[in-house]
Amino acid sequence: MWVGLPSTEIGFAAIDQKQAMAKRCSHEGVVAGAKAAVVASIATAIPTMASARWLLWAKANLNYTAQALIISTVGGAAYFIVADKTIPATARRNSFNKPSISDEL
């Protein structure tokens, strides 16, 4: 019977620890990406809307939909770029500080 073997308990603990680490790394990536998206959207919205009011070419060619598309594209790109760089960096940083499984049991 395989129930209660210490090796399987350590194996399950290792899997749970890896899952918790993955959730933490992805959560930090989501938070960093959201912050970057907000900053990039604001930094893009100000000159886009100002140019649509004052520049003749932009006034003639950039309707509200085009302005929203420009702003949302930059925000989305910033989110994915920062999240894509943050998740592996967090995983790399946490892999050096990995506690031993035998210490937890």
Question: How would the blueprint of this fold be written?
Answer:
Blueprint: H1 6-54, H2 56-61, H3 64-96, H4 101-104
Helix pairs in contact: 1-3
Could you walk me through the main structural features you see in this protein, from its secondary elements to its overall organization?
Helix 1 runs antiparallel to helix 3 (64-96). The protein is built from 4 helices and no strands. The mean pLDDT is 84. The chain is mainly α and 105 residues long. Helix content is 88%, strand content 0%. It has helices at 6-54, 56-61, 64-96, 101-104.
Gist?
With 105 residues, the protein is mainly alpha-helical. The protein has helices spanning 6-54, 56-61, 64-96, 101-104.
Rounded radius of gyration (Å): 23 Å
N- to C-terminal distance: 22 Å
Portion of residues in helices? over 70%
Could you spell the SSE succession in H and E letters? HHHH
Count the E strands. 0
The gross shape turns out to be rod-shaped
Give the uncertain stretches in residue-range form.
Answer: none
Most strands sheet: none
The average pLDDT value, as a whole number, equals: 84
Helix-strand category = mainly alpha
Strand content: under 5%
Oligomeric grouping of the chains: single chain
| Tally of contiguous helical segments | 4
